[in-house]
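agent> Task received from the user: take the single chain below, predict its 3D structure, and emit structure tokens. No templates, no multimer pairing.
agent> Plan: (1) validate residues, (2) run structure prediction, (3) serialize to tokens, (4) report one or two observations.
agent> Step 1 OK, no nonstandard residues flagged.
tool_call: predict_structure(input=
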Amino acid sequence: MFYKPSTFSLSLITLAIISSNASFAENANDNEHQLDTVIIEANEITDSDTEVGSSVSNITTEDMEASLTTNLNDLLRYEPGVEATQDSRFGISSVNIRGLDGDRVKISIDGVPQADAYGPTSTYLRTGRNTVDLDSLESVNIIKGGDIVEGSGALGGVVKYRTKEPSRFLASDGDDTSVSLKAGYKSASNEFHETITVANRTGKTESLLLFTHRDSNETENHKGDAGSDKTVGMSRESVDPADNSSDNLLAKFQLQLDQNNRVGVVGEYFNSTSESTLYSESSATDEYGADDESERQRVGFFHENTNTNDIYDRLKWQLDYQNTKTTNKTTRSATNRLVDRFYEEEATSLKADLVKQLNLHQIRYGFNYDKKSLENLNKNTVSGTTSTTRFSPVADADIFGLYVEDNWAATDRLILVPAIRYDNYQYTTTGDEYIDSWGDNKNEALTAQLAAEFALTETYTVFGKTGSGFRAPNLDELYYYFANSAPYGSYQITPNPDLEPEESLFIEAGIRAQKAYGSAEFTAFYNDYKNFIEQVSLGTSATFSLGEYTNQNLTHVVIKGVEIKGSLDLSKSIDFLNDGWVLNGAIAYTEGDNLEDDEPLDSIAPLSAVMGLGYDAPSQEWGGQLNLTWVQGKQEEDISSSKQWLATSDYSLIDLTAYYKPTDSLTINAGLFNLTDEKYLNWNDIRDLSNSGTNLDRYTRTGRNVGVDATYTF
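)
tool_result: status=success, residues=714
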């Protein structure tokens, strides 16, 4: 390790300060960046990649290709304060933003909300929210912190996936056809992946067909892959062996009816499978196996109208059908047992967004209606005899939301964005021979926020946002039922259909600077959450000698922190450097406390920092990036008392990526990751472990590894 973490962190802070220092403005030329324009012509209104008053990260497909991104871990590798949440068996399941994950982060694809997480048990059934292939994405927009316009679930933040458009592959006008082939390899999981993309424009129609296939094994830890290791139990150091595969299909067809009307249809199909031997859960006489599958299907229609009238300057509405299903099969050799469980969420979504310019006010408003059917079913087969149960009753969910937002240019330097939203949801359950209905649950919420930006000078802008948010409880929080009786005792998990929605009050403020040679941003945030849903013990009794448990609205949580990020064009700041040199940096610090239990919040990631030095040759034929990442260890005082044995150490990573374009049609990307072969634990990988006898070496991340891919377009 050739640098000290403290020096590294200080250098990033220095970067942010220097890149925004007015003394550098003397060298700024006429090409310096101006403040974002707020008022725009009606026929130029487009979806924005920025949110007034918020800290936003936008990751483009070019960013993903340059960093050889194949999964969520790769995508978020250089985003301090944002991480992927994963499980040793079920893989990457969600996104953690500022200490909140699962359904407390809103995730959508082309505006369509993704299925809720469902994981009422620690084994045998766990659904995630990671049913998207990143090769199909145009961009990923991450809004950190609350955002009421997105509705229920946007407590910790929002992740907006946008799928690729035909136009990105085609000439700016006229008939055109493009075909591209991409193939790559990642050594960390022995993954081979291939993508074929075909785009066409004929007259007023555009179409796109994109297909990706991936084959891989288990992702290595620092020791390597599973190899021939058959050690069983918690002492196992190797990862469990697995064979993984996925297929993703994206199809689009769009028609420009006339100057003001465009319609289109989209279809998505995603399927991933994983077969593994769970040596870590097995014993010498009882071998566990897993056969897991996740599938998502979506068909959608949209209509966009820009014919200015008294109601709107632009209208976009869409109707989507989406079905998401996870099936987890577990086998046990000793009892000749097969546990076959699934969770399925079928949804029809109608969404409309309108924009109207009224003098200095740009009014955005709209609504969404989602009709969902949710089902879980469990089959347990022992020696040929099958029993069937449910964890939750079959349920229908009706979700309605309505919002209004005013982007008001109060002066030529001040932007105010007030917004208000109304949400109403209802779960209706149906009992059957497997489980009682347990009753219905319904509630409503009125939330509001105010965002602002004020230009102090042409260089400096202060910004902030404050408001309230909420999250409706999900199916397993409301209705999870399980009873177990054995000679050693009995226990029960009892549903609570009277749960209230979780609530939040949030505030964030910051300052950003932007000049021709670079930009910087400092953000501080404070979030107060109430009615957190958490499982609690109701005590023991003669009936339940091992206890009775249920979910309740108990926890009061406070999360606060600061983030700094900056970018410096070294070629404009240092005279002797050629064009193409850029320095980027970011730091994120968050702390959280469960005030109900007077304990630290374990979902908070430790302090992290990233610095990247990049170069792009003026010819754009080659370039590369050197990234340095430092993460502070998770200290005992920042961990709840029962988890302090999991305390981790600091770690530092070095990654090197490069690209080469020998011709206009061919691009080759290569990367060397964890260059120094650092052995480390990621806190979010282990924070849910409960048995102190577990060998933590099994949870280390991959050591030195490589990746390469090539894309040919014709």
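agent> Step 4: summary for the user.
The CA atoms of residues 181 and 196 lie 5 Å apart.
agent> Done.
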